[in-house]
Amino acid sequence: MKNKRILTIMAVAVIIAGTVSGFILSDIFTSVSSEKKPVIEIGDKGKVVGARTNIIYEREYEKCGHTVVSPFNRAKDLEGKDLHQIRRVYSSDLGYSISWQGDTLIIRQRINQFCPADKDVYRLKEYRGMVAVYRGIEQEEVLERVTEIRMDLLPAPVQEDIKSGKFVFKDRATLNDALENFDEYL
User: Fold this and answer.
1) Average pLDDT value over all residues in the chain
2) Assessment of whether the complete model's pTM goes beyond 0.70
3) Which end of the chain is less packed: N or C, by CB atoms within 10 Å?
4) For residue 53, what are the CA distances in angstroms to 35, 50, 81, 88?
5) Taken in order 87, 91, 92, 98, is the CA torsion positive or negative?
6) Is the separation of the CB atoms in 167 and 149 below 8 Å?
């Protein structure tokens, strides 16, 4: 019975010693690893634009929602510059967002206008009872010419489509084709 008691006391002592040593060791390891370091260094501090750097220039037109991607014409001006130096010239205050995507420099510019494609559209509208051709976006459109086609001679559905702005053309050739079809109503 004495041996059982001694074994029980020793087992309890070993458990207590293990628990205490576990707390001590965990405190040591916690203090060693408490310094937070990134696993991978992610940063563009060292990247500099070179002569062979691929640069993508994206212009986002807010009024029409289109994005136009084109070559960046001033790439030579960026050679030898890092992201911080580029952002000083092309700042977010001017609508620019500059970032690296791999080895490609992405320059995004938000422009509070319509894109060039939308500025040159043609649309048919009514002007003093006649079919007229307007060019440009509706808010800034210019009356280009008034045709000899009277609105009241067109079928009612065509009149409604013209009044609701459904006759929109991307180029002058398509516009002229549509107007030739209306010649039968002269």
Assistant:
1) 84
2) no
3) N
4) 36, 5, 11, 19
5) negative
6) no
